[in-house]
Amino acid sequence: MANTSNRNNRPTEQFSRLGFIMAAIGSSVGLGNMWKFPYITGENGGAAFFLLFIVCLVLVGLPVLLAELAIGRSGRASAASAFTRLGGGPLWRGAGLLQVLTPFLILSFYIIVVGWTFHYSILAFSGRLFATSDFGGQFDGFITSYWPIFWQVVAMIAIAWVIAKGVSSGIEKFNKVLLPIMAGLLVLLMVRSITLPGASEGIAFFLRPDFSVLTPESALVALGHAFFSLSLGMGILMTYGAYVDQRQPLGTATVAIGIGDLIYALIAGLIIFPTTFSFGIAPDEGPRLVFIALPAAFSAMPLGWLFGGLFFVLLAIAAITSAVSILEVPVAFAKEQWGWSRTRSAWTVAAICFAFGMPLGLSNGIMPGLVIGERTLFDWIDFITANILLPLMGLLITIFAGFRWKAAAESTGLSQGWLRLWLLALRYVAPILMLLVLLYTSGVLAF
Ligand code: PFF
User: Fold this and answer.
1) pLDDT digits (tens, 9 = 90+) for 181-228
2) Which ligand 1 atom sits closest to the C-alpha of 107?
3) In this structure, are residues 37 and 229 in contact, taking their beta carbons and an 8 Å threshold?
4) Domain 17-441, what architecture?
5) How much distance in Å is there from the Cα of 322 to the middle of ligand 1?
């Protein structure tokens, strides 16, 4: 495999324009859209929360997204060095390293869930998923077996293989094939779910605005989710930014990515709520929703094995296209830092991440001793990354692009008016809100 960096270890690989937008949407549409977004929307006033989510996306999400892309494209380096290449001092090197460590940690547990989606796809299509009515027991039986480790290996090998193939023949091609399939499955499942008897109640729960249940807490939840949903603070968009053509307008790309993410989230809600409501099942959050509540609903519908199977394939695609994007961050770092080839970097990082992630997978069941306080190792890494490291990285990015990096304005190619708005959001709105999110998610600020 040719080394795809020049002598300064700067990336020379490049996305096509459309390929970049598709890869970024592939990254943003993930488990967050499917198992978190519908639930928190339903809990926080349906369409009222959805509107709040859009406001957060526009006020904070998109400005930070644009900042990450601009830093990445101008720095033309891995997420660890982009800050320093643009004039940041040693402390910014530290922030950069944290920005590589964070995705490594996230991947170590996310890949386990990718493996679960593979297992459940096969289980559904083979009919074995529906051979029981105790879906909770079935899920517990699965995660306390050795099967998750097997699937963790398979999922890790799959993403390492894509990343080893490179930016355009790996990441870009992978997303160009899978994104349309995902869109087709979403629409198909949405049509199935909104035509179920009693679906309208689910649609109403999801989309009827109830402003009375909105609280300041809802705003922080919406903000945190807008951030996670766009894959911000994980070094992904900074790393991808380094592969974007210098002439591609970043503002347009940012808006396209935001709209793409939003549409997928909306459709995911239109699948999940009508389906669960139609069969009188409580729409839970996280694994309980996806691996327990939904199978129960699918089992009760005609051709449930087919729609259930397609649903898990949809979930697997959403998850794996996100996992690919996050592996690229430490891989780009390894290439740059040690001058390794892409192939060597991909397989080495994947192997280390797997080794690190194995105890996390085991902590879910087989080794109940791997629990610290009230959380398993798996839950700890999830908690620390989502609630502390991500908002912290978000805050640092806004500070860097808003105040530290002098050439931020020229780097985006925005027109004067948009530029002013962007800088306003980046300097005054986003940092304050990100700080509030950080205080809230880390438990310092309580309601
Ligand atoms: N936007 C992604 C999601 O909603 O799932 C966030 C993400 C998580 C990206 C984990 C990549 C990843 F490995």
Assistant:
1) 999 999 999 999 999 999 999 999 888 888 888 888 888 889 989 999
2) 13
3) yes
4) Up-down Bundle (1.20)
5) 5
pLDDT band at 1 (very low <50, low <70, confident <90, very high): very low
343 pLDDT above the threshold of 60: yes
- pTM score, two decimals? 0.93
Q: Which residue has the tokens 């009827």?
A: 208
Which residue lies with its CA nearest to atom 5 of ligand 1? 30
93 C-alpha to ligand 1 centroid (Å): 24
- Would you place residue 271 in the very low, low, confident or very high pLDDT band (cuts 50, 70, 90)? very high
Percent of the chain surpassing pLDDT 70: 97
User: Residue 104 C-alpha to ligand 1 middle, in angstroms?
Assistant: 12
> Once rounded to an integer, what is the mean pLDDT over residues 218-240?
93
Mutate to test the pocket of ligand 1, among 228, 317, 385 (most ligand atoms within 8 A of CB): 228
- Tell me which residues have their CB closer than 6 angstroms to ligand 1: 27-28, 30-33, 106-107, 110, 228-229, 231, 322-323, 325-326
Residue 37 pLDDT: 87
**Band of residue 2 on the pLDDT scale cut at 50, 70, 90:** very low
Ligand 1 atom, smallest distance to 37 CA: 4
Q: pLDDT tens for residues 246-259?
A: 999 999 999 999 99
**Atom of ligand 1 minimally distant from the CA of 27:** 9
**Residue 319 CA, ligand 1 centroid: distance in Å:** 7
Instruction: Tell how far the Cα of 318 is from the centroid of ligand 1, in angstroms.
Output: 9
Burial 66-93 (b: 16+ CB within 10 A, else e): bbbbbbbbbbbbbbbbbbbbbebeeebe
CA-closest residue to ligand 1 atom 4? 32
Q: From 25, 27, 102, 389, give the residue whose CB has the most ligand 1 atoms within 8 Å, as the site to mutate.
A: 27
Rounded to an integer, what distance in angstroms lies between the CA atom of residue 42 and that of residue 92? 39
C-alpha to C-alpha distance for 427 and 416, rounded to whole angstroms:
16
Annotated domain spans of the chain:
17-441
Please, which pLDDT band fits residue 152 given cuts at 50, 70 and 90? very high
